[in-house]
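User: We ran a pulldown and think these components assemble together. Before we commit to crystallization trials, I'd like a predicted model of the whole complex to look at. Sequences follow.
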Amino acid sequence: MEIAKTVDGNAVMLSIEGMLDAESARMLGAEIAGLGGDVSELVLDLEGVEYITSLGLRQLVLADRAMRRRSGRLSLIRVSSAVTESLRICGLSERLNIL
Amino acid sequence: MKRTNDNRNKGRGSLFRPLAIFFAVLIGAVAVYAVVRVLMLAAADDFNFGQETLSRLLFELIPPVLAVLIAVIGAAILLRVGVSRPVRKLTRAMGKFTENVAAGAKTEEVPARGSLMALSGEISRQSEKTLQLLEDARKLVAAETEERVRLSIARSVLRSAVPERLAFDALNYGVAGRSELSRSVGADFFDAFAIDPARIFLAVGDVWGEGLPAAMLASRIKSELRASVFAGKSLSEALIALNRSIYGNAEDLFATAFIAVFYPETGELHFANAGHPAPVFVGGFAGFLRMRAGLPLGAYEDFTPEEFIFPLHAGQGLVLYSDGVTSARNPKQGAFGFNRLLDAAKELFVSPLGAEYVAEELVTTVKNFSGTDADLAVLALYYPNGLQRRFRADYADTVTMRDLLLEWLGGDPRRKKILLVCEEIFGNIVSQSGANYIHLNCSREEGTLILRFTDDGKPFDPLSDKPSYALGEGGTGMSLVRSIGGDVYYRTQGNLNVLTMRLPVIQGF
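Assistant: Here's a predicted model for the assembly, 608 residues in total across the polymer chains.
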């Protein structure tokens, strides 16, 4: 998996490529934990994610909670059909901010 | 210890023997020479041993004898100090090295002189190297052992909460659960039990994690759900309590769960969901139960699940499954997925062989598809049209079958003959087909009573054997069935024997 990072002021976009499984979820978690305190807008670009496991879904919830704690916001953009289906099945599509 | 001593003695013997022989020969030669000289000088003196002869003897013999003695003693001392002692020390050191390694202590330097110093140094260096290798190996084994121990604990924790197989049934329902654990111990779980004879609790779920923490959470979810159910909480209340309880757990693990209560007397299924994939219902037509998904447990503090009701009809069944089923991957075909699950479930319910058969076969299908070990949980509910029961292929179970059939047949005037035929069929399967189980289905469909025996023995028609001792000379099961207006046909289905008996319903019974 690869994560590309784009920073624009207080907004950070992470573009994820590949499979979002246990190992890449850990990488994503480390990336999010390392965000500066001034980041209030986190955008995850999921167009390149062809498959997501439960640990990947868990990481999305943890990112959402982390952003809420710092009064920021997590948004998911360009969500691939595979990820959309997984988010729908577990109900997270009703909770996460999907653009 | 004993072995070390033996080795030491053996080493010493092999070093000394040639030297000892050499010196013995030398001493022997000198002795022979001395005797010859004594005889020669004595003969020249006509054996008078005069003073001159004696002094010549002394002059001639003492120096060589002394020289030989000094040489022997000197060589012995040199050998002992220069070779034997250091070799013994080295041997002892090597023995100690083995003991020290076993005890985990450091080896000491071996003092030595001369050419043996090089050997001693080499031994020390080799010892160091061996110790380093041993230490590395020990660390590796320790890490691997720790991991293995953790996984084995995880396995025990999960296995104590989630059995590999579970099955129970009554006249009007059958429930069977089946679970598989992979090497990494994912925590897919199920639970099923009768709250009372009129209510069956069913649950299936996945913890989003692996290993010990996940296994412990699965075990906790199971016990908290049971506690809620026995405390009289509704399904949504049980999920709310569980969500609050596990929200913010140390590892921030989440789990999905589908829970339900089945009422066999009415066929109603009440259920609630926390982010788990929807179960499949089969019979007539097949599909996924429709509902709002809810949310994974532990993900968000505010979660209000809904409760739904679905009416199951006689002859229908339900398959609850964990994520491990649909996400089982085959390198060529990708994930098992929902369509394959639906097809497999439909096919398994074609022949009403009960929940156990469905759960077992579905797990086998998924395992064959992925070709590896997997974390799976499957729970099947079968709501038969009539009665269904699985028996051991054992004469002792004939009694159970007779009681069941008597209850089901009620006041039917043919009941004795029907019982006789059923016992004949049962007995023949037990004695001749080598089956493990016999599955009995009894249903009433459009004016016909249907009794179906299915067994997993070798291909064998239980009524082909005749005449039967149970029915007396000349009587056969087949002719008895015909005498009460019925018919019997035998077929094989896959590796199963299926014998179906049809009888017209007598009005009023």
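Residues 387-504 of chain B form a domain with the Heat Shock Protein 90 fold (CATH 3.30.565.10). That may be worth checking against your pulldown data before setting up trials.

User: Thanks, that helps.
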